Amino acid sequence: MSQELERVYTIPLGKVKLSQSQHRAVRAINMIREFARHHMKIETIKIDEELARYIWSKGVRSPPRKIKVRMSKTDEGYVLVSLFTDDVETTTTPEKETKEVESKADAVKEETPAKEV
Predict the structure, then answer these.
(1) pLDDT tens, N- to C-terminus, the chain (117 residues)
(2) Taking burial as the number of CB atoms within 10 A of a residue's CB, which of 10, 27, 93, 95 is the most buried?
(3) Angle of helix 24-40 relative to helix 49-56, nearest 10 degrees?
(4) Residue 71 is part of which domain span?
(5) Would residue 43 count as lying in a domain?
(6) Regarding beta strands 5-12 and 45-47, do their DSSP bridges make them parallel or antiparallel, or are they unpaired?
């Protein structure tokens, strides 16, 4: 049965501030592991390197207050916790259309003569 289970959670890390300032980032990582064990019902938890870097980005003393993560249960029997990135595609104009619009605007500017005073 090869069914992967994937969920998105926002983990509150406010209780990290109760610990000593030298241990806050470490406690945040441990709280993420504990949250994943509780919600995904598996003991083996792996934290993605990108998520760990985000937790430690402002140093050991000031980790984020809350974090949005994606938890994926794999066939190998562990849960991979990674940073949530929004997969919604934004509508952008292709480069060709943008360049054509800019070149038309430049052409109009060149055709209009400057008024002499």
Answers:
(1) 446 799 999 999 999 999 999 999 999 999 999 999 999 999 999 999 999 999 999 999 999 999 999 999 999 999 999 999 987 665 565 566 556 656 666 665 666 666 666
(2) 27
(3) 140
(4) 5-83
(5) yes
(6) unpaired
